[in-house]
Design goal:
mainly alpha, two-stranded parallel ribbon
Length: 94
């Protein structure tokens, strides 16, 4: 799940969507499959895509989240439970 916020609510939006999906019995793919970031904070909405295009850290997080989700979906479809993304390195170390 990738949530982009420009001035408010990125984390709250991600949590809301995540909770909604869980209420439909969807299973989370893991921490690496959830990303919420502010991009273009306080920049005009019409042009904040430029900030996204320059944010290589966020793009790296998306590149980790996508295969994490894919691996979790494949494992679930095959009746296995995995720690999806265990082999991936977080794009931004804490």
């Amino acid at each position: 799940m990738i949530v982009h916020g420009d001035t408010e609510g990125a984390e709250n939006n991600r949590r809301s969507v995540s909770d909604w999906l869980k209420s439909m019995d969807l299973v989370p793919a893991g921490a690496l499959a959830k990303v919420d970031r502010y991009i273009g904070y306080w920049e005009p909405y019409a042009t904040n895509h430029v900030a996204y295009e320059k944010d290589e850290g966020f793009q790296g997080e998306v590149k980790v989240a996508a295969p994490t989700l894919y691996k979790a979906a494949v494992a679930t479809r095959n009746g296995r439970q995995v720690a999806a993304g265990f082999y991936l390195k977080p794009a931004r170390e804490k």
